[in-house]
Amino acid sequence: MIPSERRDFIYRYVHEYQTASISDLVDLMNVSHMTVRRDIHMLEEEGKVVAISGGVRLNDALRQELPWSEKARLHHLSKRDIGKFASSLVEDGQVVYLDAGTTTFEIARVLGERFNLTIVTNDFSIMQYLMAKSQLNLYHTGGQVDKRNHSCVGNTAAMMLQTLNVDVAFISTSSWDLQHGVSTPHEEKVQIKQTLLNVARRCVLVSDSSKFGKYGMFRVCPLNQLHDIICDDQLPIDVVQRITEQNIKLHLIKTSST
């Protein structure tokens, strides 16, 4: 691997496993301890990771998201089971918004077999998948294209959403916690998510627990502006209690092994 490929590998690896030991990275990439330490140092200078004793962990302050194709490989079973449960909240005849993301794509897989629904999304991968489902009504927001995440963002997309009345909005995120609420490292995503809080009767955050405890530079909303949160069952007990104290419906999904 060239240096940039090694650093990308390390960043992806800690996204999936939260931490990584230097010895494991040495074995996985077949390089020296010194090379791994140098790569970790450069990632740390970029604010992406934090060096710890004998290894590295993801920085709680998220600077950059992985591209769509990389995120799709991570925590797939949790995303799939979250998607199945989320789809059960949708009633026939409703207008449903699916935010850009790999967890919402799993919701689309299930809703794609339903009838009498209108789906709105800013995600090209979701739209492409659902276009083969002739029984559904489909709308795409349009707007500035975010090639990295296969979606549209910015003011134009938000203006389109302002013309709608949405029954259920499934909102994705790369980072959320009790102190900062829902956040993102990318400013252009904020307006879309904040618009949904105004136009949707029910706003549902869908996220696996690996994204909890992270925060981005740009704040979307405190958690108590959401109606529901759907997550896997790996959140700490004290976090579960503090979320439910805010009168948020918290749905913890046990992930299947297959």
From TrEMBL:
Gene3D superfamilies, sorted: 3.40.50.1360, Winged helix-like DNA-binding domain superfamily/Winged helix DNA-binding domain
UniProt domain HTH deoR-type: residue ranges: 3-58
Domain of life: Bacteria
Record keyword Cell division present: no
Pfam short name (any one): HTH_DeoR
MF term (GO), any: DNA binding
Keywords: DNA-binding, Transcription, Transcription regulation
PANTHER family attached to this UniProt entry: HTH-TYPE TRANSCRIPTIONAL REGULATOR SRLR-RELATED, REGULATORY PROTEIN, DEOR FAMILY
Protein name (record): HTH deoR-type domain-containing protein
Source organism of the structure: Providencia burhodogranariea DSM 19968
